[in-house]
What we know:
The chain is an alpha/beta fold.
Amino acid sequence: MSDVILEARDVSMRFGQFKALSNISASFRARELCAxxxxxxxxxxxxFNILSGAIAPTTGRVLxxxxxxxxxxxxxxxxxxxxKSFQITNVFKQLSAHENVRVAVQMRHARFDFLxxxxxxxxxxxxxxxxxxxxxxGNVPGRTxxxxxxxxxxxxxxxxxxxSDPQLLLLxxxxxxxxxxxxxxxxxxxxxxxxxxxxILVEHKMKLVMGICRRLIVLxxxxxxxxxxxxxxxxxxxxxxxxxxxx
Length: 247
Ligand SMILES: Nc1ncnc2c1ncn2[C@@H]1O[C@H](COP(=O)(O)OP(=O)(O)OP(=O)(O)O)[C@@H](O)[C@H]1O
């Protein structure tokens, strides 16, 4: 059986006359950690939004485990086991870290387990705490989200995304706005998470993803310029020319 989790098949995107993506095809396998990189305006966010179902491509399809999920409603995406985190932190600022994760865990139970809600709720607090520990926030469960450092807020968001135990995690610039220390912690966490699920991330900082991803997809002017290991990408003359400004 194929272990392809997600596939973009010949995806193109137009905004009016402007072609933001041209015929991109890529498959992502189980427990793969893959970064989508490229210079500003390359089409990374557009591709990410299509993969995550936020927007429908003009042409082409997105398949999840072989089923067409192109622009399915977001709740259907979540039900399939796909979670995502965007550049903008999406936590309830007035709630504590623990409350934020508890809400996410409860939503999962509400979705899958609503007939047994009372029994299910018994474990919710413990599950929320375990998720906080997973992302390195086990020591600050009571802190209001607004009072957490930026990196901790992103980690909190990650814990919320993990509440549904997704098979596929999509991360849009997970280290945006982070300090170097926070970035290192987040990258370590992402690497760990990818041992159990497929993780696809968009990242500006090429060096950063070179260290943890075994596969990089490079976009440029809406086209797929390269798709390969960090070694392949480093050695690719086209990539060096357009992305690194060398050549
Ligand atoms: N909704 C939209 N309407 C019109 N043009 C758009 C829209 N969204 C994106 N674009 C254009 O499509 C191109 C690709 O944008 P996109 O945001 O996907 O690139 P990116 O690689 O994520 O860039 P960055 O690294 O700067 O975030 C850009 O030229 C952008 O101006």
